[in-house]
Design brief:
6 copies of one chain form a homohexamer. In chain A, the strands form 2 sheets. Chain A has a 4-stranded parallel sheet with strand order 2-1-3-4, sandwiched between helices. A 4-stranded parallel sheet of chain A has the order 6-5-7-8, with helices on both faces. Chain A is built from 8 helices and 8 strands; from the N terminus they run βαβαβαβαβαβαβαβα. With 231 residues, chain A is α/β, with parallel strands linked by helices. The first copy, chain A, folds into 2 domains: 106 residues, 3-Layer(aba) Sandwich (Rossmann fold), CATH 3.40.50; 104 residues, Rossmann fold, CATH 3.40.50. At the A-F interface, helix 4 and helix 8 of A face helix 4 and helix 8 of F.
């Protein structure tokens, strides 16, 4: 199958990071194409950034439908424009937030999310709640730095992540989700330190799309994700 | 005080409807300016429409801040781009969805929302849940027509609204919220028929902004609505 | 409009405090009359005190209806006899607990309540839950002193309030509610120290009643607040 | 043990009904004394009636403490003044609402409450929620007649009760609670018709008080039910 | 009445402990018979142990029905095979987990459970949730030792229990439940130290069975506990 | 990878049905082995049947670990002994109930479960709740026939299934889950009739196990699924 991954910002390095993570765990017959937005926020740090990215994400979905992709991934943990993408797409669309939470539920009773920056904590909890998974979430913990700092302050962010990870385990977390696409590829490194499974949502999303494709099931168009009349 | 109301679509007739409702109940020293988006969806029927409207809404807030407005209203019941607007605005921002639900809680134990089209039902319930008000909501009922039909099929929509209103009352609703800005101004007409209070979110939002202004309190910028670094 | 504020105890100094707070933020055409109970508890420290105050509160509402007031405020954060008052009143009745929580939701995602004494913590949480607002409440924190100590130990209580306020912020609170009518008037002083909005429920209640009056909507009498046959 | 049952209204016939039900299922060494209020509402139909009854209930508890009763029952399904009574009493106090719900949970996964009048439906649901038992409650159904009609329209009320009972079973109820003390004594008659267990809260409360007495445990005074300083 | 208590493991000392606690608080006309399983786990430390014990528990219920017992108690706080037992039994069956939680609700607003080992914490919270009592539970705290250590390390376990009990009180607990049948009989000793009521589920279950017996009500067989066709 | 599917009853025809469904959608490099229990209930109709099957399921997991399987599926929608299996297994274990619910969440906002017999409705709802997915479940609907009737009354059961499916859609279901392993293989047939996606949990479980295997993540052993000391 052919999967298009949409990195909903203009950060090319992050796009490469995401692409590498997806390709590492894809099945042999899965093709991955990862794109950045042509214009939009450099990183997603706020609801404002999400709102600005929305039109660009949807544009990439539309283009991708013409290019006959078999599935789409929105590669930002807050799952921006996910519902709108599911509405307009005739192929399955998965967000890395939803994918990592759902997959986590098969291997742990409680997961934790470690994300950034701190101001996103309410949105993150609201996301978990909107998926109905509050009782499966032991902890939402934030690193209070802009996602943009991933390029320049990675060692510090890794250290803070492990710190928050240990706190999350003390709060009952049994698996940790990388709460930001920019952290993609660090799962196994963190897993070695924290000694519990760490899940990269990009990988989770690839695996879920492959599952849907194998099974031949697609987004239900009967109600919530009904195709808009105009688009 | 000076309030800017943003109708998040390009429909001028709806803008006039909203403006009239707001002006009918404003205090004498309140000035109302209602605008449509320059570009965007003709009406908001889906998450896709909401996503497309987001950038335009935020642009209107930014322009309005330069114009020194004292408060903003986003005049679509699904409160699109509300969190992002609260992030970037130095003046209070209120959505007509949140305003009508909060005001309803002072006069009734349970409210009902009657909105359109049917495919928005999950989003509407998710909105209520995100505000924490599920236990105050007796019923979310939908008219399965595009919001665009308000211009051409108003009598039919009024009839369907009353029908759903009666069902909502049977389900325990004690007040009915007009679940679409396009229904603005019909509150008292429906109230007469249904014999319980009917709330127009546009009016509720004006009154809440006036209340915040009188009291001199503004959006808390400490966490969820922290001002983005870039905007 | 003419608003009657009922301080549900016999403490005259608290009545003056409440009256002053209400008058500071009322609109010019709003008249405020604040009364104490003729008999009842000196302050409200327990459910027992609330139960004892109930008959007196309802008596003041009944008298106020004959005096043609346009709205009533019950000025105790635990909103004693609020439902009963809404049942018997033909004019809107607002409690300062409900008013401050609802207004808080327009300026913050999560509020905290700081109240007294400690034994009321379960009742306070139950109140929040009964309004459906658990997910909007970051923290309920208590000062373990009788409300009666407000007269003699105000400096200590202020110090404890700020202490609890800082803890509440650390727990995610974005606005603080004065959880006791006896704290009325201290909002701006605390706000200066805590640097997030602080809400006085007496003011919130006045503004909400003015909003309802302007809009011309009143308590729904169809179900929960149906007028009793005997009263 | 010696149990004082407080019928929180002035209706002597209801007091006799309650007394008879309690005595039918008491243990041999349990003495039952059932009293009406000296003054107060003739029946409890509303929150207003509950508020008016509160002072009288507390007075009866205080008198009962002097009379050395070993336990108290508040015999109205809405459990008026129950928390206040637990605060001031040195002996256990049980409400017939809480007692019937808790006992029901041992014999059924889901219970239903059938009460009266209809306007109390929100209060009744709020009561269930305040006890944390929403997920155990299949249905709250109301007969829309004043409790006062029990004397004059009993056959009609019985017919309506069975009607609602059958609806409740269709909604998943596995046991039915008599949602009004005035229905005391009809449990076995209804049980024969509905063919599922029917619980009389008066009996449930007697059995729970006997259980607490045998076990020698009493209300926890550490927080919620702390003894008030003044009473 | 004749009660059969099933200790769902093969530990004879625990059976004697349970038997003693039950007999200490039984009514004079209640006969208690306590049995261990013939084969099964030595103690219940995990879901695996619970699963292994299930068939043996059901066998003891079946034998007990032939022996004409009037009620059954499953004496393990996690209430293993409780629903299955209620399905097959014609007499009431009560688990010590459910019994202690329900009885606790009459004397405290919030209870805490102190159990063992730590890995059972999610199961314990899930049990509380399945009974609908999350909002009544202040805290679930675990001692991280196998239940099997009760024989050899009792002094240490007592010390840890009191430690966790004090933490639970700080978290708002008003009564403490002995979260393991092996702790039976220590209620009053812990109560003296912690100065709040401590509940032994074995006693609670005996008292609830006696209550059901006196009242003549039995498990509802209409839905959840319908008798299986084959057994 | 090599997957062992455990049909937790002794019904060979159901085992063949399950095996066929799993093999239809497995990847080429996945080997499926499906087994029945040697002894146990003929079908799972009740909690009693589940309890009886538990030991046999765990025995099959243990044997499978010696046979070096890479993953296990418990093929009964009520996920019997799932937690215990996760505790003892060093390879991932997935239940068809959890698998179908989690996969459903990627393609629909709300799913419905159609299962049998009617008495299992509370257990089924409790299962959904224990996974935290109540808000994603539009409806749990039951066919009131023993699972054993699948062999002899399949046409009737199919007709009833479609009937319930249409009701579920009216209640907001966007995808239907086959709530019984005995219905395996009927997904596409029902999908054609109902015109919304229908999910077979056996297939969902296979795809999730393959996903976990590809990604190289396994059950977290830190807390809930800690390996028992004895087994």
């Amino acid at each position: 199958m052919r999967i298009k991954i949409i990195n909903p910002n203009t950060n090319e390095q992050m796009t490469r990071t995401i692409d590498a993570a997806a390709k590492q765990y894809r099945r042999q017959d899965t093709q991955i194409t990862t794109v950045s937005l042509n214009s939009g926020p450099p990183v997603i740090d706020s609801s404002y950034d999400e709102a600005l990215a929305a039109a660009g994400i949807l544009q990439e979905v539309k283009v991708g439908l013409h290019e006959k992709f078999d599935g789409f991934i929105i590669a930002c943990f807050s799952d921006p424009a996910l519902q709108a993408s599911k509405e307009i797409s005739t192929a399955p669309v998965v967000g890395i937030g939803e994918a990592s939470m759902l997959l986590a539920c098969t291997i742990a009773y409680k997961f934790a999310i470690i994300s950034m920056p701190k101001s996103a904590v309410s949105s993150m909890r609201a996301l978990v709640a909107s998926y109905g998974l509050e009782s499966r979430c032991a902890s939402v913990r934030m690193i209070d730095l802009s996602v943009g700092k991933l390029e320049t302050e990675l060692p510090k962010i890794k250290r803070l992540f492990l710190c928050e990870g240990r706190e999350a385990i003390a709060e009952g977390a049994e698996t940790i989700l990388l709460g930001c696409a920019g952290l993609s590829g660090l799962d196994k490194e963190f897993e070695k330190e924290l000694r519990i499974p760490v899940i990269d949502g990009v990988v989770a999303a690839v695996k879920l799309l492959e599952s849907l494709h194998d099974y031949g099931i697609n987004t239900s168009k009967i109600l919530t994700y009904r195709t808009p009349q105009r688009f």
